[in-house]
Prior knowledge:
The complex is a heterodimer of chains A (about 180) and B (about 725).
Chain A lengths: L8 E5 L9 H10 L8 E10 L2 E10 L7 H5 L5 E3 L5 E3 L9 H5 L6 E3 L4 E3 L5 H4 L6 H5 L5 E5 L6 H8 L2 E2 L11 E4 L1
Parallel strand pairs in A: 1-10
Antiparallel strand pairs in A: 1-8, 2-3, 4-5, 6-7, 9-10
Chain B lengths: L2 H10 L3 H4 L21 E4 L8 E7 L2 E7 L12 H10 L9 E3 L8 E3 L2 H19 L4 E5 L5 H10 L5 E2 L7 H11 L4 E2 L6 E5 L11 H12 L2 E5 L5 H5 L2 E3 L6 H14 L5 H7 E2 L1 H7 L5 H8 L3 H13 L4 E3 L11 H14 L9 E2 L25 H4 L10 H10 L7 E5 L3 H4 L3 H9 L3 E6 L4 H4 L3 E4 L11 E3 L5 E3 L14 H11 L10 H9 L7 H8 L1 E3 L22 E2 L3 H5 L18 E5 L15 H4 L7 E4 H6 L7 E5 L4 E9 L6 E3 L42 E6 L1
Parallel strand pairs in B: 6-7, 6-15, 9-10, 9-13, 10-11, 12-21, 15-16, 16-17, 22-26, 23-25
Antiparallel strand pairs in B: 1-2, 2-3, 4-5, 4-17, 8-14, 18-19, 19-20, 22-27, 24-25, 24-27
Helix pairs in contact in B: 4-20, 5-20, 6-14, 9-12, 9-13, 9-14, 12-13
Amino acid sequence: MAKTGNKRYVMLLDSRKCIDCKACVVACKAENDVPLGVFRNWINAERSGAFPRLRASFDPEQCHHCENPSCVRVCPTGASFQRADGIVLVTEADCIGCKYCMIACPYGARFFNEETRVVDKCTFCAHRVDRGETPACVETCPSRVRTFGDLADPKSPLHALLESRRYRILRPQTGNGPQLYYLL
Amino acid sequence: MDRRLFMQMVGAGGLAASSIACPKFFGRAKAAPELPAPLGVPTTCELCPNKCSVLAVVRKGRIHKLNPNPENPKSRGMLCARGNAAIQQVYDPDRLKQPLIRAGARGEGKWKPVSWDEAFDFAAGKLAATKEKYGPQGTLWSSTEGFQEVFFKNLGMSFGSPNILRHPSLCLASVNLAYSMTFGTVPSFDLLNSKYVIMAGANRFESIITPDTMDLIGGVMERKAKFVYLDPRFTVTASKADEWYPIKPGTDMAFILAMIHVIIAEDRCDKTFLDQWTLGFDQLAAHVVPYTPEWAAAETGIPAKEILRIAREFADAGHRAVFYAGRRSSWYQNDFQMRRAQAILNTLVGNWDREGGMVPNRKIEKGEFMFLPWDDPAAPRVDEVGKNFPLTSAKDGVYLPLRENVLKGEPYPVKAWMIYKQDPMNAVPDQGKTLKMIEGMDFVGVVDIAMSDTAWYADVVFPESHYLERTDPIEVMPGIWPAAVLRQQVVKPIHDTKPMLEIAQGLAKRLGLSDFFDYTIDQWVAAEAKDLPVENGLEHMKKHGVVGFSEPKYGTTRNAVFRFVTKSGKIEIFSERLAEAGHDPLPVYASPAQPPQGKFRMILGRKATMTHAALANLPWLHEHNPENDLWINADEAARMGIRTGDLVQVTSTAGTVKIKARATEEIRSDCVFMLHGFGKKSKWLRSVYNVGAADSILLETAWDKVSGNAAMHETFVHVVKV
Lengths: 184, 722
């Protein structure tokens, strides 16, 4: 991937806007032929309180495409790897299905695909990104929760969002350097 | 010509398959192949009535992905879960694949696959026999909204039947009539630019309406406009609101009248606007004197000081404040008058035709295909809509009063029922009565893409081609951001199915009505494309799928010569026409009956992964909603010894069902809720056959007095642990 050397793909999620409509989840299923019962992306719903003081929040999640991905470190065959642009992928042909990476992932983002017999996960729709498009989940989202882009590009709208809004990353203590940024 | 446009043209030309590689993953050592942009055939989604524009990506003749088409200003460049799942309808192994004639008892599920000729001969024979015996009025033609609905309707009308029954009286007839009686038209709400939005029950974040749902997120969540939401249930919409009030069901009108009371009493109206454009303010001022916030607090359960404050804030936001109308307005028997109260409240702050307010819809010009007209039917309608509901749309009919008449055989017998794209067994309250109506028919014919419960009880089932397999007429969607869309064929039908036009033609040929259907879909579309506001309309629509206006126009009706299409030419706060028809000329509140001890009011609602009672069977959607359950307030459940997952029996005067309970904090204690679309009787909907329960079994027959719209929140149920 010669052209991706100077890029760093990340995703910003404005969860306040998430309406738990599942458009991203179904779009991913279609785009990536994900089997039933397993998911490359999902929405964490949290509900709390007692009537009538109630709260609900929805946080979409998927592979965090970490800066220092623990899944890549534990892979015995090199099937799990990180592209120069930060996208973490699995080379199907090299995966032996040992599932070490599934255990190593702090986010539960990986699953074993019974149809392909290899470990599967979100690819940030690398095949679409390489054509200059956005991932399917980003494109389809009715409430525009997601902003995808190249953090290494100073002109990216990501910077304005990250500078003007507070944000958090999930489980920073793992040292993985996750690249899904949740705007607050 | 830009690259994308060129690629779309190539896509539409059918070269899709060869140009797409399938790079699932990239190996480190392998060089990536140079990839073209995805080819998408522009077409229009049919999974709900929003008509979003999509780009269909086809690989090796199979639809791989539906992407949103950003060119549609109404769909705002998105595609929801249902839209994405449409592919599964096409490749559903349980789909209707060829015409079927019933071979066993009704509902037994024994079918004989037949040729189209056999199916047409059989159905035409039955329709002709009914006409012979009872006249053309002995046939009923019911359908729901769809681009090819026109052909179905035209078949019924050219056959001579007055009984064309469309969906509004199960949906939004009351809201449409209320706003029409007030403004002479039904406006849209500019949620993108509003500063203050009040919604009552219109659960916009789970019941997606374009562009309102996205604009509410964009406008309210991003620009921090204030959003007040009333709903007995804590919905996703409630969770996003600045303020949520679990209002007592059926009392919305009291809340609105008290707001009107405050705004008038404190002189917060837009006086200039009222003087110039409206009629009946003085009568309104006198009318609302007793409707104080304290009075409304007792009715609604919302504290008087909050109603007072909300009324003040609403008026302060002036023309950028909206009380949102809602869509499915089939709630209570006073629904029309409640919507009238909304319309009047909006009028008081002068938000008419202003940015951030209530804006009359803009249309898009299109051509019309001229077909041979037929004579008006000789018989009156069986639902007697003209006599009993003179203000409502006679051409759409009133569903529940019609069913009552048909069951009684009054004023004349109706013995054949043709149904297009609709599932009355689940869409209409009181399934027992609907089934009785089916059983009373000499003939029932259904056109659909899947074996609905209604099809399951039919005599003949005509399989329609899926929307991705056919070309439909051009549809105009009026609005603040209006659009005209084309649905065009993406793949050839994979089974022995036909579009509705060809089904109508097959029947018309055998009924001697061919002259009325002497055209092709291409001729029809070409005629429609002629007057579109774009050069080479037809070519444009084939390449882009849509033409729309992305810049809103405000204030076009706010000029000295404009006359509202009302009797007085003004906005009618006080309506003489209502008085003449024997209805309240200003909305009068009557306290709703409360469920007696031990009973609950049943309320309905939506979820973003389903459309009405449909789609629960699609695997990609079903895995998010495997089964419906009965929401019951946690305290009530505890009192009754019911825990989440327990099976409960729910009973109304219409019927009884068994369903799992969900003890939850997210609903008031006086009502229960269940999603619909489950408990199906059709075994060909295998994921939802006999799974959960159908709400239509429980819902009793009641309708709004003015519009005839079904009143679906008027049922009290008894709940016991099984």
